[in-house]
């Protein structure tokens, strides 16, 4: 039994089922997330990938109540931790479950850190509020957290403001803030996108080290297939608000089944790509999420589409009995695999 299979034989620590998120703008309703189900198990990293606007952020931050204010959000389905279904809780209870169970890391540290306040007291407050650290112990706790994420001279840094930190250090301070509440789940939305390659590698290795020490589950949203390959155990591929393929990283990256996943992977350059060679693009553009039609959303851009693809929406199911955890939502590619095993 693989490490991933062993983990999945236990209970998930976070699970969404048939999650739908509608965003109400002035003129229309955007179905940003449509019937998405995924499970996250202790100690694993699940990466969510997909092109810009595919719904990665809305699917992960929506149930936590962390979408920007000023837009009306309607959600249905479930998004549950051991404390219950986040979608059934009011704002205050949801904030409490979020603080207890989740640590959140964003692309921009200043969306989590208050630029007007010194770093240390922000960490101390979080530990006091959610981790039950008594007031007298919060400073020592925050200093130890800053040290743990690799910030040199943490006693001094405790009193500094975010603008006194470099970009990489701010990212580390945000990770310390996310860890201050002792969460079970770390939700990282593009945590390394704004960083240069060396700092990016340091942050990834820090996240892996923390995960190994604390047994944290990480929900990692990224555009970067290299980061997925280097860090994730499983990956969910999103297209136009739906998960179209999901499975162990090795299965999905080595044997992508959905035409969208195939296109996404072949549009990524690797070290063997000759300089100047044109990368493969997926033709066309994603659909307008406020005017969705019946059928597979990828069909208009898909090299394998059949006339029947525009009649009904495919749902996720196993690509074969030999790889039951590798799932794909495609009428055309999936039967091919079933024929092979049948
Ligand atoms: N505040 C908002 N107002 C209007 N539409 C929004 C808002 N936030 C997200 N959307 C829409 O919801 C859909 C999903 O957006 P989301 O931010 O989840 O995509 P994403 O996959 O995270 O993209 P990116 O990779 O660019 O971060 C998109 O069509 C987007 O335009
Ligand atoms: Mg996003």
From TrEMBL:
<dbReference type="Pfam" id="PF00005">
    <property type="entry name" value="ABC_tran"/>
</dbReference>
<dbReference type="InterPro" id="IPR003593">
    <property type="entry name" value="AAA+_ATPase"/>
</dbReference>
<dbReference type="GO" id="GO:0005886">
    <property type="term" value="C:plasma membrane"/>
</dbReference>
<keyword id="KW-1003">Cell membrane</keyword>
<keyword id="KW-0997">Cell inner membrane</keyword>
<dbReference type="InterPro" id="IPR017871">
    <property type="entry name" value="ABC_transporter-like_CS"/>
</dbReference>
<keyword id="KW-0472">Membrane</keyword>
<protein>
    <submittedName>
        <fullName>ABC nickel transporter, ATPase subunit</fullName>
    </submittedName>
</protein>
<dbReference type="GO" id="GO:0055085">
    <property type="term" value="P:transmembrane transport"/>
</dbReference>
<dbReference type="InterPro" id="IPR050388">
    <property type="entry name" value="ABC_Ni/Peptide_Import"/>
</dbReference>
<comment type="similarity">
    <text>Belongs to the ABC transporter superfamily.</text>
</comment>
<dbReference type="GO" id="GO:0005524">
    <property type="term" value="F:ATP binding"/>
</dbReference>
<dbReference type="GO" id="GO:0015833">
    <property type="term" value="P:peptide transport"/>
</dbReference>
<keyword id="KW-0547">Nucleotide-binding</keyword>
<dbReference type="GO" id="GO:0016887">
    <property type="term" value="F:ATP hydrolysis activity"/>
</dbReference>
<keyword id="KW-0067">ATP-binding</keyword>
<keyword id="KW-0813">Transport</keyword>
<dbReference type="Pfam" id="PF08352">
    <property type="entry name" value="oligo_HPY"/>
</dbReference>
<dbReference type="InterPro" id="IPR003439">
    <property type="entry name" value="ABC_transporter-like_ATP-bd"/>
</dbReference>
<dbReference type="InterPro" id="IPR013563">
    <property type="entry name" value="Oligopep_ABC_C"/>
</dbReference>
<feature type="domain" description="ABC transporter">
    <location>
        <begin position="14"/>
        <end position="265"/>
    </location>
</feature>
<dbReference type="InterPro" id="IPR027417">
    <property type="entry name" value="P-loop_NTPase"/>
</dbReference>
């Amino acid at each position: 039994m693989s490490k991933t299979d062993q983990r999945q034989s236990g209970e998930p620590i976070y699970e969404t089922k048939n999650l739908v998120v509608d965003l109400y703008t002035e003129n229309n309703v955007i179905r940003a997330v449509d019937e998405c189900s995924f499970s996250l198990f202790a100690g694993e990293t699940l990466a969510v990938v997909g092109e810009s606007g595919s719904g990665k952020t809305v699917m992960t931050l929506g149930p936590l109540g962390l979408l920007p204010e000023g837009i009306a959000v309607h959600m249905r389905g479930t998004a549950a931790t051991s404390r219950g279904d986040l979608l059934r809780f009011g704002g205050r209870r949801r904030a409490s479950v979020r603080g207890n169970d989740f640590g959140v890391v964003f692309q921009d540290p200043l969306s989590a850190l208050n630029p007007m306040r010194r770093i240390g007291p922000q960490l101390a407050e979080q530990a006091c509020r959610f981790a039950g650290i008594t007031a007298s112990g919060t400073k020592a706790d925050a200093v130890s957290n800053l040290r743990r994420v690799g910030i040199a001279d943490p006693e001094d840094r405790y009193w500094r403001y975010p603008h006194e930190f470099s970009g990489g250090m701010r990212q580390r301070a945000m990770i310390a803030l996310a860890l201050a509440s002792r969460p079970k789940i770390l939700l990282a939305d593009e945590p390394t996108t704004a960083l240069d390659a060396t700092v990016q590698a340091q942050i990834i290795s820090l996240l892996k080290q923390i995960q190994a020490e604390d047994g944290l589950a990480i929900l990692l949203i990224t555009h970067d297939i290299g980061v997925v390959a280097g860090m994730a155990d499983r990956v969910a591929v999103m297209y136009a608000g739906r998960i179209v393929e999901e499975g162990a990283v090795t299965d999905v990256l080595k044997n992508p089944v959905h035409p969208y996943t195939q296109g996404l992977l072949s549009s990524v350059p690797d070290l063997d790509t000759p300089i100047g060679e044109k990368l493969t693009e997926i033709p066309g553009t994603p659909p307008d999420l406020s005017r969705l039609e019946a059928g597979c959303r990828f069909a208009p851009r898909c090299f394998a589409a059949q006339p029947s693809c525009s009649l009904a929406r495919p749902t996720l199911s196993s690509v074969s009995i030999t790889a039951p955890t590798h799932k794909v939502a495609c009428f055309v590619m999936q039967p091919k695999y079933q024929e092979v095993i049948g």
